[in-house]
Amino acid sequence: MFVCQVCKRTFPAGGFCTEDGAPLSAAGGDPLLGTTIGSYQLTGVLGQGGMGTVYLGVHPNIGSRVAVKVLSHAAAENRDLVERFFSEARAVNVIRHEGIVNVLDLSTLPDGRPFIVMEQLEGAPLTAHFASMRPFPLATLVQLAAEVLGALGAAHAAGITHRDLKPDNVFVTRLGRPKVLDFGIAKLRPELGGQSDATRTGALLGTPQYMAPEQALGSAIDHRADLYSLGVILFEGATGRRPFDADALYELLRMHIQSEPPPPRALRPDIPPSLEAVILRALAKDPARRFQSAEEFAEALRAAALELGHALQLPTPAPGAAFRSSVAPTMPASASPSVGGTSSPLSTVREPPPRAGMGVWIGVAGVIVAVLGLGVAAIALLVGGGMFAASQGATAATSGDPAPEPDDGEGVDISAELPKMRAKAREKMPDAELMMISASGPVRGGRLSIKANTAVSYTFRSEHASKTSENCLTMVSVSQYGTHVSDAVADTGYKCKSPVTDKPRCQLRDVTAKAPPGAKIQSVSYMNLDARWVWIVVTEGPSVLNLPDTC
Length: 551
Prior knowledge:
- 28% of the residues lie in helices and 20% in strands.
- The protein is an alpha+beta fold.
- It has 2 domains: 124-351, Orthogonal Bundle (Transferase(Phosphotransferase), domain 1); 358-548, no CATH class.
- The strands form 5 sheets. A 7-stranded antiparallel beta sheet has the order 19-18-17-14-20-21-22, with helices on both faces. A 6-stranded antiparallel beta sheet has the order 4-5-6-7-9-8. Strands 2-1-3 form a 3-stranded antiparallel beta sheet, with no helix packed on it.
- The protein is flat and about 75 Å long.
C-alpha cells in the first residue's frame, strides 16, 4: 500500500499520484492503513498515544477529510477506558459548540475496538504558541481565553465539566480559532452516563500541573475546577511559567492545595493590574472565591482588555446562555502526561509553513486585525449614549488647533514607513493597496516606541485576490521582533470588499496633535468607516476620538 503525501489517497503500487502528480510513499505496517471505516479510507497516521491511534480519513469520492481515533487492543479491554471513550463522544454531541471539536460518528471495528470520527483540524495546540513566542502577547492571550470561556460556558450549561483543561487540549486552528479537545475524562450528568460524585471521590483524574485544589484532593468538583485550570493557563501564557512546578507529584499537588502563586507582575511587570487580579482570582484555593461562571470570568477579561488598550471583541452572552466566539489570532506539541486520561492528540498537529507561519506573529498584531469586523472593536467596547463614549472629548479636541506634539525622534515614524511597508506587501500581492493602519502602544509625535506588547501593522488588500481567493489580505507588522509579512485573517464576508487608498491625507503627527493637551495616546487606527476615511485615537482613560482624515 502506498500513500500520496499531498492528498493522502492510497494506491496498490508505488509511483506518482494520479490526482496531483506527487510521489507515493510506502504506507507502513499498520494493518488499518488503506482500510475503510464507514465512509472514509484511512490514509495516514496523525498521532499515537497510550490509548490508541488517530488516523487521517479521506472520503474516496469527494475528498473530505476527518480524524479517526481508534482505541488500542489493550485499551479496548479496559471497560473504564472504553466508557471514557464513549463519554467523550456523548459530551461533545450534547454541547454542540463551535469552540469544541466536532464528533461525527461513533462505532466499533469488526475486531471490537471502538472508534470516533471527528473533524480534522489543522494548526497546533496552545502549547506550541507558548513555546514559540515569549513573551506571549497579552491581548492575544485574553482573546484566546475569552474564546475558550465561550466553549466552557456551553459545556457547563449542559452539565459537563471538562476536568482536563490544559494548553495541549486547546487547539488553535490555522484560522486562529481555539478548539477545546479531549472530553475523555469529562464529568457528565448521570443521564449522559456520568458517574456520581461519590463514585468519583478519591479518583485522581486530570493533569496535575493544571488541577484545581479540590481536584488534587480527589474531592467532588464542579465547573469551577475548569475555571481554575484556565487560570493556570492564563498565568503560564502571561508569565512564561506555570504557577506551581515540582519534580515530585506529591509536592506538586501539595502546592496546588496549600501554596499561593507568585504575583504575575513580579514575573512580568507589563501585565496590567486588572489582568493580574483576574488571574489570581481564577487561582483562588476556595472555589467560592473564584469566578462562579464562565460568563463572569469573561466579563472580568473584558475589563482587563480595556486596560491593555487593545481593540478586542469579546463574547457578550445573554445571562445563562452559551456564547459564540469572535475573531482571534493563529500556531510540535509537547504533551503533558495525564493521570487517568490520554495525552494523545485528537487531530493533526501541523506547524504552518514559514511564510504563512508568521501566523505566530499574528499573535502580536492579530488582535489589531480584529477591528476588521464591521466596525472597530475598541469603539464597540466604549459605546454609550452616542457613537462614541468620548464624544465630548472629541469635540473639545477639535475645537482648537493646539501645537503639534513634539517628535522626540524615537521609535517608528508610522506615516513615513508606509511606502516601505507597501513594497513588502507587494512582494506577496503585487497589487496590494492600503486598507488599514493600526498602532498599539504609546504614540508620541507620530512615532510608536517599539517595545514589549507594542506593534504597528499595515493591512493591505489585493483586488485580484479578492476576486479569486479567500486570502485577500496581507499584513506587514513591526514589533520588537522585527518586521514580518503575514496573511491577515478577518471576517470573510467583509474583508475582501473593504475600501483601499494610496495613503492617508494627514500625517499621523498632525492627527495626534488634535488630541487633548497632555493626553496619553494608547493606540491609533486608520481605516474607512461609513464611506469615509478616519483616524481612531484611543487615549488613556480610556476615551476614543473619531477624527476625519482632513488636514
